[in-house]
Amino acid sequence: GGMVASALSAAEAAAQWFRGGLVAYSSGVKHEVLGVPEVPVVSGEAAEAMAAGVRKLLRADVAVAVTGAGGPSQQDGAVPGTVFLAVDDGAGVEVRRRRLGGEPEEVCTAAAEQALTMLVERLRGAQRRR
């Protein structure tokens, strides 16, 4: 619900490199705005489409996306704590599935932390490839 964008916007010199974010909380926004196909939004395919969609919308070099069932109930048949993360850097997309424990706010915090870690790993890998 915006935790990733909040953390990025608070980082040093964010105005120079952070283009923005899109909080697509509802399934409709994920489908209509980010181009998620008619698949469950709690899926790797949805996370991949979300990252590609936001990268395109914001004309960003790299984008990260998080989608999941934070709880307390299931979504799309996924148990609470099921999260999919994706990073799209234009050269490829990496998707990870995670099963996180705790209350909804704990799941959201852990998902944001893992998304940021995944983003940093991808950016460091891109620097090594140059």
Classify the beta-strand content into a percent band: 15-25%
Determine the oligomeric state from the structure. Answer: single chain
- Number of beta-strand segments: 3
Can you give the mean pLDDT?
A: 95
The count of helical stretches stands at: 5
Structural class: alpha+beta
Largest sheet: 3 strands, antiparallel
Main-sheet strand order equals: 1-2-3
Global outline: globular
Proportion of helical residues: 40-55%
From N to C, what is the helix and strand string? Answer: HHHHEEEH
- Give the low-pLDDT segments: none
What's the N-to-C terminus distance? 34 Å
**Radius of gyration using CA atoms only:** 14 Å
Describe the structure.
This protein has 130 residues and is of the alpha+beta class. Helices cover 45% and strands 16% of the residues. It contains 5 helices and 3 strands. The chain has a 3-stranded antiparallel beta sheet, with helices on both faces. The chain starts with a helix and ends with a helix.
